Amino acid sequence: MVAGVLVQLASQNVDKIFDYSVPRELEDSIKLGIRVLVPFGRQTLEGFVLEIKDSSQLELKEIYSIVDYDIVLNEELLSLGKEIQHDTLSTLISAYQVMLPKALKAKAGTTIHKKFHTFYKMGQNNYIGTSVPQRKILELFQSKDMIPKEELVSISSSALSTLVEKQVLFPVQIEDYRLKYDIHQDSKKVLTPLQQQVVDKVIHGDYERPFLLFGVTGSGKTEVYMNIIEHVLSQGKTAIILVPEISLTPQMVEQFSNRFGNQIAALHSALSDGEKYDEWRRIARGEASIVIGARSAIFAPLKNIGVIIMDEEHSDSYKQGDKDPRYHARDIAIWRGKYHCCPVVLGSATPSLESMARANKGVYQLLVLNKRVNGRSLPDVEIIDMNREAKNSSSHLTQVLLDEIKHCIDRGEQTILFLNRRGFSTFVTCKNCAETIKCPHCDITLTYHKSNKMLRCHYCGYATPLPKVCPNCGEEALSDLGVGTEKIEEELHTLLPYARVLRMDVDTTSRKGAHKKMIEAFRNHEYDILLGTQIVAKGLDFPDVTLVGVVNADTSLNIPDFRSSENTYSLLSQVAGRSGRSDKQGKVLIQTFNPDHYAISYVKHHDYLGFYKEEMFVRRKLGYPPYYYLCYIKISGKDAKYIFQEALKIKQSLERMLEHTTILGPTSLPIFRVNNIYRYGIILKYKKEDRLRQDLFRVKNHYKTNNKVRIDIDFSPSHF
Ligand code: ADP
Ligand code: ZN
Questions:
Q1: Which of ligand 1's atoms lies nearest the C-alpha of 190?
Q2: pLDDT of res. 472
Q3: What's the angle, vertex CA 29, arms to CA 24 and CA 35, rounded to 5?
Q4: What's the mean pLDDT in 86-96?
Q5: What is the pLDDT of residue 108?
Q6: What's the burial of 604, exposed, middle or buried (CB within 10 Å: 0-12/13-18/19+)?
Q7: Which CATH number fits domain 193-345+352-366: 3.40.50.1820, 3.40.50.150, 3.40.50.300, 3.60.15.10?
Q8: Which of 59, 243, 325, 361 has the most CB atoms at less than 10 Å from its CB?
Q9: Distance of alpha carbon 455 from its chain centroid, rounded?
Q10: Whose CA is nearest to atom 20 of ligand 1?
Q11: Is the pLDDT of residue 59 over 80?
Q12: Residues 61, 21: contact at Cβ < 8 Å?
């Protein structure tokens, strides 16, 4: 017997299947998709068995051993990996590794221990016991199959050992998973007729085409998801629900665990490696039937999937853009939906332009929830023109906004204050020489973290304490500029001393469980104002929040990216949607220097479709998605001049090969140097180009062995 093994080594050069002979004693255990140890050159490496063949004429090396007997890549995932390799031009091994929790990857550096728990089961049933404690123990087994050891020991450990000796009871080892979900009788809602319609269409409709559920904020999408899933479970099938980020997950996980208990498994970045490993195995073993998680949860090894739901489908966190494989979870969802013949539901209050365009063309089926469940209208949105306001004051909070916050507190209601931090940071400048402090390895200013007085590079991780004097002129004149959440918090303390402010950002939520505690504290009215960045913008559902203030709407608008209007519109709508979700009317105040920009004025009228039309017009004029596809090629290396020359060569050779593609660049990236690596980008725009993947593969292949140049290819990048 011969096994084709793909070794876990992240190198373009060894991304091939190698044949090994299978020793006699392992023949019965070798299966497709299990992990084995093999000799590779002088190393011993882990790999996946991808092929099993009868024999070979060649002298082959032998497989050393089997790492574990569970199949880690089932048949579906095996073919999905090949699809990803083909679609994204990644290595096959990276396509498989992205599907697995860290603990199942080679060289994870951590050994994850399994914990076991002892239970007792009943053997023969006719023994009635000879003492009171024995009978007491046996009585317990009338209502239960299995009882934990501690419970029995607490009655009498000698009675227990007698019963074991007599073979009445015998021990079983049950794996003790790290996470548990308790069912709470949650307040299950009677669906509104509109919600019910959507549920019916999904469960009885045609699943050949994905559904796009366009539902305004507060229209009760979560309840719709849960009802669809209940139906799916009743048919003995399973479900995946994706949420964008961990910041959204705790409330969602809580809602799902309240209703479905231990049937759910959660996969997201806030879990420890051990917890992820446990959850993954519960899924693979069929012990959990609902997977809820962020991007990579789309690879959950569920069998018999009955629905795949992607909440906030417009979120760019669904695209892995920073490393191979550069995949979009939406594409994977649709692929798996086809594989399992099940519906795929993409939900959002602000669908991505691509998805809405597809729905308009009938590629997706459009479902609409255009009303809030409480029957209330969407919150009133007021735009505050900072060009006028800012002249009067040095504060970042206008008087209008402050007054409104005051009223809100007086009414005993709550405020969310949102700081738009996309492409924005707090930096340190010298008042004397105007020098800003930059990273020594990257072309970017360092971000100032006030809490520990450190300067940090968000690109390479370089960190240094804030110097006393300016490194340039030696004066003691450094001061921090820009608006961070800490700065706004300070201003609030000065201007509204009695307001209780809860600041939520990466600094304050980094400790495990901190995020959840903060949400609970705010819900319990321990605070009046929740202040934060993206983390407060989405998904949160607080009944007493009636005011949302946006401190700086413009920062995401000023990013030079074809999606900046779309991102701004969707971010502002999402954050506005946090206001007035229960029975009180909500209000939203948006501070902006661009009051007339369409991305902002359409938010005022809650007019997604108006925004969509105008933005589609812009995209068509400029030749951007969804009218054209984009592909981004990044060429990087230590020697800037050499890299530029190679980038030019790539462009020229692509120009010779591709007929229907516009090729832009090479241009240096906005941040040219990161960690002393220089970066150039080439952009391809095309509608249809049959040879594209083949030709790009050739380019990639050409540089495979050149360690001075690195080529990264991103199809449909979420941004540049
Ligand atoms: P969305 O995700 O669409 O913004 P949610 O799913 O968070 O909206 O629902 C908004 C609020 O409405 C939640 O507090 C939810 O519990 C409540 N809700 C949802 N459906 C119903 C219903 N049929 N009846 C009453 N309340 C509902
Ligand atoms: Zn740096």
A1: 23
A2: 83
A3: 110
A4: 94
A5: 43
A6: middle
A7: 3.40.50.300
A8: 243
A9: 27
A10: 220
A11: yes
A12: yes
Q: In what order do the strands lie in the sheet with 677-686?
A: 661-674, 677-686, 629-637, 710-715
Higher per-residue confidence, 314 vs 445: 314
Q: Does the pLDDT value for residue 423 go beyond 50? A: no
Beta strands (DSSP E) in 56-203 are 65-68, 116-122, 146-148, 169-175
Residue 157 has pLDDT above 80, yes or no: yes
Binding site membership of 541 for ligand 1 (Cβ less than 6 Å): yes
Q: Is the CB of 47 under 6 A from ligand 1?
A: no
Atom 25 of ligand 1, residue of closest alpha carbon? 189
Cross-strand bridge partners of residue 438: 445
Q: Which atom of ligand 1 is nearest to the CA of 217?
A: 4
Average pLDDT over residues 113-142: 82
- Computed from CA positions of residues 606, 357, 623, 316, in that sequence, does the dihedral angle turn out positive or negative? positive
Q: Quote the pLDDT of residue 109.
A: 41
Exposed/middle/buried for 669, CB within 10 Å: 0-12, 13-18, 19+? middle
Domain 2-104 classification at class level: alpha beta
Confidence of residue 456 (pLDDT cuts 50, 70, 90): confident
**Position 632 confidence tier, pLDDT thresholds 50, 70, 90:** very high
C-alpha of residue 219 to centroid of ligand 1, in Å: 6
- 397: alpha, beta or left? (left if phi > 0; alpha if psi -120 to 50): beta
Collect all residues with Cβ–Cβ distance below 8 Å to 240 and sequence separation of at least 6.
290, 291, 292, 297, 298, 300, 302, 305, 307, 308, 309, 333, 336
Domain ranges of the chain: 2-104, 116-175, 193-345+352-366, 380-422+484-619, 629-715
pLDDT of residue 538: 73
CB of 315 within 6 A of ligand 1: the answer is: no
- Candidates 608, 543, 508; CA nearest to 216 is 608
Q: Widest CA span of the chain, in angstroms?
A: 92
Whose CA is closest to atom 5 on ligand 1? 220
Would you state the pLDDT for residue 331? 97
Q: Is the pLDDT of residue 186 over 80?
A: no
Nearest residue CA, atom 18 of ligand 1? 220
CATH number among 3.20.20.70, 3.30.360.10, 3.30.43.10, 3.30.70.600, domain 629-715 = 3.30.70.600
C-alpha of residue 644 to centroid of ligand 2, in Å: 21
pLDDT, tens digit, for every residue of 259-285? 999 899 988 777 888 888 889 989 999
SS3 state at 636: strand
Domain 380-422+484-619 has CATH 2.40.30.110: no
Q: Average model confidence (pLDDT) for the chain? A: 89
Which pLDDT does position 180 carry in this prediction?
72
Q: What is the per-residue pLDDT for 637? A: 96
Which one, of 698, 665, 696, lies nearest residue 88 by Cα? 696
Residue 219: CB within 6 Å of ligand 1?
yes
Tally: H helices and E strands in the chain: 21, 30
More confident residue, 408 or 424: 408
Backbone angles phi, psi at 382, to 5 degrees: -115, 140
